Amino acid sequence: MLPIAAYWIFLFCLFLPGGVLLKKILGITTHNTVLTLLMGIVFYTFGFTLTAFFFSLGALSLGFWAGVALVSGVVLRREFVHDIKSLSNAVIALPSYFKILLALLTVALLLKSAQSPFITDNEGYYIQTIKWLNEYGFVKGLGNLHMLFAQNSLWHVLQAGTNFSFLTGRINDINGFLFLICALYFLTEGHRQSTGKQLHWLLFMPVFFILLIQFADAPSPDLPLYLMLPILLNVWLRDISDNGFKTAFVLFIYLGLIKMTCLPLGLIFVTGFAKRKKLAFMLAYGLPVVALWIVKNSIISGYPLFPLPFFKTGADWAMNGDVYDFVMRVTKDNGYVRKGFLPADTAFFTKLTYWITQGGLYTLMNAGTVILLVATPFTAFIRRQKPYRLIYMALLVNFILILVTSPQFRYFMHITVLCGLLCAADFYNRLRPRISFYKAISLGSTLAMFVVFFNLDLGFAKSKMNKSTGQTRLSQLYLPEPKSKYPAMRYKKARTGNLNYYSPVKAAYLYGSHDGPLPCVNERMIEQFRNKYGVVPQLRGSTISDGFYSKKINKTPAP
After folding, report:
1. Which helix (H) or strand (E) holds 538?
2. What is the residue-averaged pLDDT of the chain?
3. For burial by CB atoms within 10 Å, which of 67, 97, 473, 520 has the most?
4. pLDDT of residue 319
């Protein structure tokens, strides 16, 4: 816990001056220090992305960007000091019970971050993606080695750039930091915008803490969307000036490039096309960062708009089409059924039946989201204010598009959270109970987070080996657990063609690669694609830094 707390303090000192610098460049002012920190996250994400084209994200890259933060903090010290004072004053102004919530949340997040992550994707590709970035930067055709490595999320770029991999292998805890600073925003802004017994909807975020904390102990790209989107929408709603529009648009582009599932929410920015200044800003800011993302995708997978299949490049390292189609089919069918594939001619309404009857947490989340979407139009927010109606229409379009593609609940949970916030706030404000009722709800929800420190099956993961949460140990106070849940995993050397690689001896699931030495990929997965599609990954040159390509061979099992 203590090393993680020190790491979060470092991130604060890195991101705050970076945010001040980005606001200066873009001509943006913000009234909340958390927004400056989020701007710093945006700035350093694209900074490390640019670096990864040419260098590994190790000590030199972190030293350089830390130097940028230091110089920015000195040159722009007036703004820097103002943001620190503003944050301090906002926290001091909070009622005592909110301060208690923040203290409890901080302890819970530190405990959770010190545990071993249990999210399945962490063992599948988070760890390995970050390790490749730490040791090599962007590698051509990395998606050919492992189909999931093709994602190479910008969130993982930021984590790789700041995880001190050259000192320790136990720090991958940026999600906990993001959770804490966003909670600061929810409470400070929610308190500031509440009037009498009319509580602002931001104040109901603690209700979702027990759900969201499951994403805090691994660098999951889902969490930034769940936490930052309510902030984005609040900025867009509260500040109708060009300044508010710019801030919201910067955050939206960032989230859209991390998780494309939220792109339909861009409908709220259509009004900007009618005003020259706003349109000019959207083009001047959006085009360069989108271009950076496109080049990154082209290098990693050969698909400029990955995961969209359009405009595949002719590069020799472009992912094999059969493997790509397999990835897309797995992703699509997993939204409707928990195991296996659906027949190609399955009717859409049959898929929906499977989707709503999966059982357990899946049915609860799916049905709950539908109920919230139906209830939201009846809230006072939607009935009385046009901006909220535009947001609801964007959420509805977003949900429908996810429903017909791959309705995994983590893909639409941002919709669940937003509709849940509006419904909870409207219900509470209509009843107008004593404020002690709200205190009990928010405090109880925050305390409920502590149940995750028992070894519980919360139903998130499909693999039996990845279902349980971590365990709390006294040693975690001074030494965080390794970034993999299986630090004792053994790896064997294997070979296919000109590629020597490491394979986990007993992977948690077929696509698991865990924390093995590079290059690491499950031998069973390679055999699956060899037998099914006649494709194996191969080196493009003499070393793994030259990248990988997919070689076509006969569809016969390897000897």
Report:
1. strand 535-539
2. 90
3. 520
4. 93
